[in-house]
Amino acid sequence: MPCAHYIVFHPDHARQSVKVNATTLVAGHLNTAWIGDVYVDAIGNGNEDPYVFHDPWLYSYCHASQLRRNIRPDSFLQKGSVMIFVSGQEANNDRLTIDTFFVVGDIQKWNGQDSPELPAKFSDHHNNSGSALWQRHFKFPFEGSHIRVSHTYEAEQWVYGKELFSFLPLSANGGRTTIQFDNIDVALRNKIKSKVKGKYPVLLEDADLKILTALIETNTVTKVLKDIVFLSARPRL
């Protein structure tokens, strides 16, 4: 059965530019000691989702209840699905500004009927005050937020020879990769624009994903891949 892919709109007020050390591909060349700025969910301001300071990256909550999470006869989220997280405010100005290109590598299901229960793989993190995963990503359903969580998606990460992998895309000037709506195929552009006002996720078919991936590749110089270590924070967006 085919994969569902999505564009997911993120509010800029919940995002933050931070300086990090990471493993990157810069113009196709591997750099394991790169230092630069990336755009992530604001640190210390609720859940960080996707959470990229762990390998593999994790995604559990943002707009997840609006996505095709369960097996169905048409397309649904599964290994190989791609979620492209973009700025909602930039989309209002006809720009697709991307902070995270997230390829699903594995899926962990949450347990519990009447109350949330972490996926078995992460059970050791429950109520662990020393766990960054707990403090910054997993604890929130237990505090009353995102109580409808049902899946945690693990990112497919880069290794030599892999063609489809997750990355944070940066342009030549070091900012988030941005694509003008006018440069997108008309049918796909209209599909995206129909969702901008309500900021609903945009369901993409394989052909749509191929178009967007090519545009992202053309406009991206640096791909931040993994081993992301926080160094310092910038002012909030």
Model description:
There is one protein chain. The chain has 237 residues and is an alpha+beta fold. The chain is built from 4 helices and 11 strands, in the order βββββαβαβββαβαβ. The protein has helices spanning 88-92, 132-138, 186-196, 206-219, and strands at residues 5-10, 15-26, 29-41, 58-59, 82-87, 95-109, 151-155, 168-170, 177-180, 202-204, 222-236. The strands form 2 sheets. Strands 1, 4, 5, 6, 7, 9 and 10 form a 7-stranded mixed beta sheet that branches. The chain has a 4-stranded antiparallel beta sheet with strand order 3-2-11-8, with no helix packed on it. The longest helix has 14 residues, at 206-219. The termini are far apart. The mean pLDDT is 93.
Topology:
Layout: E1 5-10, E2 15-26, E3 29-41, E4 58-59, E5 82-87, H1 88-92, E6 95-109, H2 132-138, E7 151-155, E8 168-170, E9 177-180, H3 186-196, E10 202-204, H4 206-219, E11 222-236
Summarize the structure.
Strands 1, 4, 5, 6, 7, 9 and 10 form a 7-stranded mixed beta sheet that branches. This protein has 4 helices and 11 strands, in the order E-E-E-E-E-H-E-H-E-E-E-H-E-H-E. It has about 240 residues and is an alpha+beta fold.
